[in-house]
Design goal:
This protein is mainly alpha-helical. Helices cover about 75% and strands about 0% of the residues. It contains 20 helices and two strands. The protein has helices spanning about 5-25, 35-40, 50-70, 75-95, 105-135, 140-170, 185-190, 190-205, 220-235, 245-270, 285-315, 320-325, 325-345, 350-365, 375-390, 395-405, 410-445, 460-470, 480-515, 525-539, and strands at about 175, 180. The protein has a two-stranded antiparallel sheet. A hairpin with a 2-residue loop joins strand 1 (about 175) and strand 2 (about 180). Helix 14 (about 350-365) packs antiparallel against helix 19 (about 480-515). It is globular. The two termini are about 20 Å apart.
């Protein structure tokens, strides 16, 4: 490590943070552009898949990229991931330019396929970026950079919808007689940011040590995909596109269980497994990842539906709802950065985990008092409290896991932490969405005017269409019957979101209890000391 200059470290870290931010932003940036994309490419029934394809591809490839980083080297994996990410983004921007392509079909299916390609590259950016910081800095120094990574993740996730909306509304340009629609810049904008980072990584990033004796567990990698693709599809489709007890959803869960059983057998037998099962014997690895799962679940469950609550439950414009979420982002930035500095100075992480978890719980508890008449300012300060509590959890769980791992397993351990968090976020969106729509349906059945249409089941698609209709026609005259129904939905949605937040408190409470079981170990000062200890243990 002594051969790496401080300048090379800084340049590498900045480059990695840029691509890390692009990967995080790509999960959410298309949300506000989708109405325009659907209108131009057609395919309303495929609305959710532009986001789902990216998250599915990036999630299932995270542990695979982590293992490849241990085997082939972080630099090689990161360069490959950035290249795939850029190619997918560029192709997604071109979706629909050719009316029909062999195998890919029309514009909307082209977009979904290219978003999946972008997601494959995005999975490499997430896990490799965190592993590189672990290679460059010992845990105690890394704490402050982990805080920065947490801030970058929060900023990118929350800023994504605002950037997507701005580019969609104001980004249309005319070049050489051709019109480039604003929504296409949602994908093209990755290129001018990622390309310089790619060049800096290529020429300035040092080549970090790799495990020369390692082998790639191809069967294990295949089984990981076989486990989580049907699982995530079942979670995404269940209760929305298909009933939870439908043969398709049950079959997907059974396929997941069979693949999991095969994975355990294979990982016990192979010499160099893609996910060593002995890691689960390490208490820090198990408890930190367990807490991260529930915190990720609560974070996405709360943050994903609050903008919809503001638009449907309060009737505020989409732009104002996005700006209100800046309070959450600001709290997260401040908290992640400050906590990272304190962890570096003290060498302790658990007190800050506990403090952050308590503030996070308090923030969600405060949100349970909101209603249809809650002002934007009143909501913003509650979101600020949530952001302050959320900040430490964005980085310290991964730091605790990395601190407990031997250097040669940093990649797979870091990938596992990110993988568990992303699974938790995906589960959170699905489960909280089911709680929300079920509660809303009950509220409407109790309070809606008489008539079958009024008491019908309302799903997330209906709510999104209501928000989009208000955005597209803010001054349109609404018939009295529809206006009465809208009042019922606004009141019902405000009640349903509170029920959703109560559920979130239960999820957070469970995560907090698991977090209390994380052992507190002093942060290692120097990776050279770790390596020497590991060599002595091996001898």
């Amino acid at each position: 490590m002594s051969a790496i200059s401080n300048d090379d470290r800084r340049v590498t870290l900045i480059s990695v943070m840029v691509v890390f931010a692009l990967s995080a932003m790509s999960q959410t940036v298309v949300a506000t552009a989708m109405p325009r994309i659907v209108a131009e490419l057609s395919g309303l029934h495929l609305y959710a898949w532009a986001t789902t394809a990216y998250m599915l591809a990036s999630t299932v490839t995270v542990p695979i990229w982590g293992k490849l980083g241990d085997v082939l080297g972080r630099k090689t994996v990161l360069l490959t991931g950035v290249s795939i990410f850029l190619a997918g983004a560029w192709l997604a921007g071109l979706a629909g330019e050719a009316a029909h392509l062999p195998l890919l079909g029309g514009g909307m299916t082209q977009l979904i396929a290219f978003r999946a390609v972008q997601g494959i590259g995005g999975g490499a950016l997430f896990t490799t970026a965190l592993a590189i910081s672990a290679d460059l800095y010992p845990p105690r120094q890394r704490a402050k950079f982990s805080g920065l990574f947490g801030s970058v993740y929060g900023v990118a996730s929350v800023a994504g919808p605002m950037i997507g909306g701005f580019l969609t509304d104001h980004g249309t340009v005319h070049l050489f007689g051709q019109t480039i629609a604003g929504w296409r810049w949602v994908f093209y904008v990755n290129v001018p940011f990622a390309l310089p980072s790619l060049l800096l990584i290529l020429f300035k990033m040092p080549s970090l040590p790799v495990r020369r004796e390692a082998r790639i567990d191809y069967l294990g990698a295949t089984l990981i995909v076989a486990i989580f693709v049907p699982l995530l599809l079942a979670i995404t489709w269940g209760g929305r596109d298909h009933p939870w007890v439908s043969p398709l959803i049950i079959g997907l869960f059974l396929l997941t269980a069979a693949a999991l059983a095969a994975f355990i057998v294979v990982e016990r037998a192979v010499w160099d497994p893609i996910l060593p099962l002995e890691l689960f014997r390490i208490r820090t690895f198990t408890t930190a990842n367990g807490a991260s799962f529930f915190y990720g679940m609560a974070f996405m469950g709360v943050s994903s539906f609050l903008p919809l609550y503001m638009q449907v439950g309060q009737g505020v414009p989409a732009t104002r709802s996005g700006l209100t979420m800046l309070a959450l982002m600001g709290g997260m930035i401040i908290s992640s950065t400050v906590n990272g500095q304190f962890v570096t100075r003290t060498g302790r992480y658990k007190p800050f985990m506990i403090g952050g978890g308590a503030v996070f719980f308090l923030g969600v508890l405060l949100l349970t008092f909101i209603g249809p008449d809650t002002s934007t300012t009143d909501l913003a300060w509650r979101l600020l409290v949530v952001g302050v509590g959320l900040g430490p959890g964005q980085s310290l769980f991964s730091l605790a896991v990395q601190n407990a791992m031997p250097p040669h397993q940093l990649g797979v351990a870091t990938a596992s932490s990110q993988f568990v968090r992303q699974i938790g976020q995906t589960v959170g969106v699905a489960v909280f969405g089911a709680v929300l729509t079920t509660s809303l349906a009950g509220e409407m059945a109790r309070h809606a005017p008489s008539g079958a249409a009024a008491a019908r089941h309302v799903d997330l698609g209906d709510l999104q269409r209501m928000a989009l209709a208000r955005k597209a026609h803010p001054n349109a005259l609404i018939p009295p019957q529809e206006k009465a129904m809208e009042r019922v939905v606004r009141q019902g949605f405000s009640t349903a979101i509170v029920h959703c937040l109560y559920f979130g408190l239960g999820v957070l409470g469970l995560g907090f209890l698991i977090m209390l079981q994380i052992p507190e170990a002093p942060l290692v000062e120097d990776r050279a000391v770790e390596a020497a200890v590991e060599e002595d243990a091996a001898a």
